[in-house]
Amino acid sequence: MLKTQNILGILGLGNRSTLFYIDTLNTAYNNEEKAYSTFPFLLYNTDFNEINPYLPDNFKKLLPTLSECFNQLERLPISHLLVPNITLHEAIDKLKTPFPILHPLALSLNYLKENKKEQVVIFGSKYTMTSRYISNYLAKEDIEATSPSKKDMEFIDNLRTKIYSNSETPSEIEAYNMLVKKYSRNALVMIACTELSILKSSIDVLDLTCLQVEKALKLHKN
Asked: Given this model, what pLDDT does residue 4 score?
């Protein structure tokens, strides 16, 4: 189908994370346009149970499923796509996609270069914090990516899973915010997990979800 309109597509995945993206888009758009405005997009919802069991790196299972999603998305009149799952982009990188992706790492690399930041510490899933995917991506521009201590990584990953199931506690959120503050002393904290983005830290961080939303708003204006 010809992509004749500037329309954002969203790949619906986990319920809480997808709704968080949609709410963030609508809130940001309404703050600018006022009245009863809501952000226009097309949602292609998936059965996340067909994807989540194979995250983060069972590419043999992930890639065929994602390819079929993109085949369906190509039938929609969308010009670009937002994927509300940071981890999934490693698999998406291995596919030829029929439209531009609002890629969180590409957006983060631009941000870090523009703001002359040379070091980040990654907060995300245990896999994200220990794999070389993000660090190798940023190393292309000589930006160093480090990880929290093993103990702190375990806490962050456990909290992430609790947020996914809506079972996080106020004390856990407070402890998490203390970790953000701790690691922000020496580097810019990169929030590379949608569930963690839901907590909306009061400390200045590099939130990949926010970068995707900001890019979606800019593309809509243009």
From this structure: 53
Q: Whole domain around residue 60: which residue ranges?
A: 8-102+211-221
Same domain, 35 and 20: yes
Q: Are residues 149 and 70 in the same domain?
A: no
Q: State pLDDT tens for residues 67-85.
A: 999 999 999 999 999 999 9
On whether both 148 and 180 belong to a single domain, the answer is yes
Burial class of residue 63 in the structure, from the number of CB atoms within 10 Å of its CB (0-12 exposed, 13-18 middle, 19+ buried) = middle
DSSP string spanning 63-99? HHHHHHHHHHHTTS--SEEE-S-STTHHHHTTS--SS
How do residues 28-63 score in pLDDT, each as one tens digit?
Answer: 999 999 999 999 999 999 999 999 999 999 999 999
pLDDT band at 162 (very low <50, low <70, confident <90, very high): very high
Q: What is the CATH number of the domain that holds 198?
A: 3.40.50.1860
Quickly list H helices, 79-197. 89-92, 104-114, 126-130, 133-139, 150-164, 170-183, 194-197
Say if residue 64 is in the same domain as residue 124: no
Over the Cα atoms of the chain, what is R_g?
A: 17
CA distance 179 to 160: 14
d(CA 28, CA 71) in angstroms, rounded, equals 30
